[in-house]
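Lab meeting prep.
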Amino acid sequence: MAIFLILAPYGAYTFLMLVTSAVISVFAASAICLATVAIDVARGRSVKVLAAGSAIVFAAIGLYLALIDPQLGTLGVKLSVDVGIFVISLGSMLVRHPFTLQYALESVPAETAAMPGFLRANYIITAAWTAAALLMAAANLVLLYIPGLPLWSSLAVAFAARNCAIYFTKWYPEYRQIKYVAPARALPNAR
């Protein structure tokens, strides 16, 4: 459920880009981001860097489209969104608080959060999302400068990058649990 709420603004934005204007798409995505922030606040959770940052990115792109350059093409908008998400993700690591840490702290027991390697695991997962955003931006940039390429090539890269990041986000904590926690439990208690 959490991953659905995290990805809902991006899914809505992607779908709306196919059926309506870019301005409506980014403002709708910004509104969904703000709704996820409101849900977190209503549930007594922290305001997430990714949700708040994404709301700002989508709103800024919408304002740019509405006030400055309404002729910015679809690829320009997609590239702007991907670069914005990349900056949020990389920036969260540079300020030493990877964005995945907020979600992880709210979904694991305190003992797990206190384990050695927990912060490192969050850096690794955030790096996977940063790489995915970079790949999506690069695919849109290539498509922007080589217009003869089929549109599906950029969509395929975005789909693959996002799905790999989702899979990795689910797989890596399980891998760490098996690798580091299970062997420690198998050891006999020293008496």
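Slide two material, second protein:
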Amino acid sequence: MTVPTGRRERKKAATRQKIADTALRLFLERGYDAVGIRDVAAEADVAVTTLFSHFASKEALVFEQDDNFEQRLTQAVTDRAPHEPLIPALRREILAMVRHCTADGSAPIYRMIDGSRALREYEESMRLRHAESLATAIAADPGLPQTATACRTIARFVIDAYALAREAADPQAAVDEIFRMIEAAWEAA
């Protein structure tokens, strides 16, 4: 995530982070369904309208790194070195993300997500959006002459690799195994 440069941008980013941190703490303490938007706003000492200027929904509070995740994936495609193969660049980024999300303290968050139908549905729609964004970045690369279907398929595989690996007993081994299959699929396309 880029660091805001101006005072106003830094202040907005700090408010956004305060809201997200407060929401997550409340959700983990009381349960996702037991906490309302007004509870989060009051605890974060912001107006409900301020909360909604930073987050579109209650579910978005849980997935506050959503935009950063999508941006990192598309940048893995667009910012890779000339002649660097696509799949290793995506593997490296997914592995970094999996390591981050499997760090100590993240298990309660994923249990909360798994226990909430609304959060599972939000996460699924988020995955589809990320896959479309990644597919668009892949398709736009003139050095990757693949069909739109191939780009969309590989993008979905990559997004699913993240979800599968973060749930695995050995996330690194899971990333390695999954990306061998993704590499074979990309080469077959």
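Talking points for slide two:
The mean pLDDT is 89.
The chain is about 75% helix and 0% strand.
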